[in-house]
Amino acid sequence: DYNLGFVASLSHTVPMVAPGNVQVHTVNSTLAKVHWDPIPLKTVRGHLQGYRIYYWKVQSLSKRRRRHVEKKILTFSGNKTHGMLPGLEPYSSYKLNVRVVNGKGEGPASPDRLFKTPEGVPSSPSFLKITNPTLDSLTLEWGPPTHPNGVLIAYTLKFQPINSTHELGPLVEIRIPANETSLILSHLNYSTRYKFYFYAQTSVGSGSQITEEAVTIMDEAMASRQVDIATQGWFIGLMCAVALLILILLIVCFIRRNKGGKYPVKEKEDAHADPEIQPMKEDDGTFGEYSDAEDHKPLKKGSRTPSDRTVKKEDSDDSLVDYGEGVNGQFNEDGSFIGQYSGKKEKEPAEGNESSEAPSPVNAMNSFV
């Protein structure tokens, strides 16, 4: 009996009635104002501390999906008749009720009031991905905003080229229907970097934008393969090997060409040189001495040297001085030797092998005597 009496006495200490005539007016998509009528002071049954508002989100009107109910509480002290509810989500439905508070606790809740927040601007698209670069086109894919905050009416795409010095070119704007999730952007410049700005729109306005950058490819080969094979190790190694082989072949051909154009010609001239045309040593003003031993030595085939040819020529010139008469000196008919000699060096064509050379004038004189 004591406990029942205590509970009964306690129940008589909290406010007796709930505020009446509760009204809600939305200020914008995230703010609402609540009005109520004050209760008679005699129904407070104690000291009036204020009014308390309970409110919670029922669902998002854009997603049509119920969420876990999470009630929020705001207390307004004193004898107020209105209060503001901030931090609401756009384009959503809410419920609320109002209660009176005294020193012992809360009174009964007013009937729940349902209200809706208007549309707001959307959040940024959930993602923007740029794929399939070609010579003059790019493919854009995107996801809708996580919080559309209203009915999406369109997407807006803006893009502009970026040059090598990071300067931005002219801005192009494209409006895309709200039900689209991809776009092939064509008629672009090859090997050019572009910057993209992408955002969604509701009837209220444009939402937060998302930005990305992408580059069109350089040539048709890359367009067909969609990969840069120059970055692969095997390709680089193969190209280096081919370049090295070509360089080696060029060096070998150059060496063979120089050798073939210089040395065989010189060896051929040395092998066919005639001793009769070797120059006389006129600088020292002396002539070689006569030697019977050398005159009667048989000539060895292929053993002539430049020094032998020089000595032989000097001997020939000495004989001309001793036995010839003048420049065109010659023997008469009974001398059985006729020949003309000249101070000029003349070359007679060689007939037969090298050992069939004409005898020197000295040898001819010896045979005559």
Automatic annotation (TrEMBL):
Polar residues bias spans: 353-369
SUPFAM superfamilies: Fibronectin type III (SSF49265)
Domain of life where this protein originates: Eukaryota
Listed InterPro entries: FN3_dom, FN3_sf, Ig-like_fold, Neural/epithelial_adhesion, Neurofascin/L1/NrCAM_C
Stretches for region Disordered: 264-369
Bias (Basic and acidic residues) ranges: 264-284, 306-315
Transmembrane segments: 234-255
Keyword Disulfide bond: yes
Domain Fibronectin type-III residue range list: 18-120, 124-220
Membrane topology: Single-pass type I membrane protein
GO cellular component, one term: neuron projection
Pfam families: Bravo_FIGEY, fn3
Places the protein is found: Cell membrane
Principal localisation: membrane
Key words of the record: Cell membrane, Disulfide bond, Glycoprotein, Immunoglobulin domain, Membrane, Repeat, Transmembrane, Transmembrane helix
Family classification: Belongs to the immunoglobulin superfamily. L1/neurofascin/NgCAM family.
Protein name in the entry: Neuronal cell adhesion molecule
